C-alpha cells in the first residue's frame, strides 16, 4: 500500500527507524487435540470439537478416499480453539487409525504432542522508518515486514500521516503455521502501536495526545481512545516503578483501546490493571462481550509475557506448561471493560481484545523503566526502574 510520496516525505525531516520481532507461538488450548472416529466399510463418523466442521468432513473424506456424503461429523464444545481447531489433522489421524484397526478409536494427544505438533503463529520481523517535521508531527511512515497473511488490512494504520508505504517480503519456511487468535492483527498490533509510541517519545509528546491528534477522520477510534484515557485516569501520576501504556486497534469491525498499568520491582513486571474501551457497533450480549475482552487480554498477556516456541535441530524445545508458561490466576490483573454502542456496523468480539494488549503492556513497561521491548516475550528482559523521571511522559 502506498499513500502520497513516502520517499520524499522521509527525506525532509528527522528520521526514526526501529525493528520489532515476535516468535513462533503455540495455541496451548487447555483441552489437547482429540477426536473419536469410526470407519466401517465406505463410511466414517467423527466426534470432536471443531471450528471448521465442513472442512473437517471434506478433509477426512479426502484422506480416506470417500465420498464426503459418507462422512458424518458430530461437533462438540471445545476446550479452547483460538484457530487451532480449524485444522483437521487430529480428526484425519483418528480416522486413519480406525480404518487400520477396524474398530472405533478415541485419540487424545499428550500435552507434549499438542505443543510440538501445532500449527504455530508465525515468527515475524517488522521494520519501520518514519520522519517528523519541524513541529514534531509525523509526515512519512514506511513499514516492511516478513510474510503477508490474513487479514490484508492488519498492518494498516488509522493515523493521518500523509505519506505511507506498507509492504512485505516472503520468507518461506518448513514450520507449519495456522490461524492464531486475531491472526495477523496480533503481531501487527504490537508492531504498529509500539512504533507510534516511540514516535510520541521522539516528539516529546504524551502518547495518548500524540495519537489523538492524528485521528480527526476516525470518530469511533477517537471516542474509544478518549474513553479509555478517562477511565484509566491517564493524566493522574502513577508513581516511581509504575507505568501506564496505551494502544489502539480496529480489527474485525470492532474498535478497542487499551491501557495497561504495570509495577516493576526487582526487575520483574507485574500487570496490575487493564482498562478497555470497546466499540463493537452494538453489544448484543454485553456480558458476553466483556468475557471475550477479558479472555483476549489474558491470552494476549500470556503471549507477550511468556510465549515463545523455539526450534533446536528441527525439534520444538517446549513441551508442557513448565516450558511453555501460562499467565496464572495469582498474576492476572484487574480488567475493566467499558462498552460503546456507536450503532456502527456490528463487529466481532472473540478476537479484537488481543491485538492491543502486547503493545499497551510494553509501552507501560517503557513508561515505568525507560526500557523499550522490541523483541517478545517480555520474560527475556530484566528491567531497571532507576531512570530519569522526566522520561515518563505518562506519569
Structure description:
With 395 residues, this protein is an alpha+beta fold. It has 9 helices and 15 strands. It has 2 domains: 2-24 and 121-391, Aldehyde Oxidoreductase, domain 4; 34-108, 2-Layer Sandwich (Aldehyde Oxidoreductase, domain 4). The chain is elongated, with a radius of gyration of 23 Å. The strands form 4 sheets. A 5-stranded mixed beta sheet has the order 1-9-8-7-2, with helices on both faces. Strands 5-4-3-6 form a 4-stranded mixed beta sheet, covered by helices on one side. A hairpin with a 2-residue loop joins strand 11 (254-265) and strand 12 (268-279).
Tag the structure with descriptive keywords:
26% strand; five-stranded mixed sheet; four-stranded mixed sheet; 9 helices; elongated; alpha+beta; 395 residues; Aldehyde Oxidoreductase, domain 4; disordered C terminus
Summary, kept brief:
The chain is an alpha+beta fold. The chain has two domains: 2-24 and 121-391, Aldehyde oxidase/xanthine dehydrogenase, molybdopterin binding domain (Aldehyde Oxidoreductase, domain 4), CATH 3.30.365; 34-108, Aldehyde Oxidoreductase, domain 4 (2-Layer Sandwich). The chain has nine helices and 15 strands.
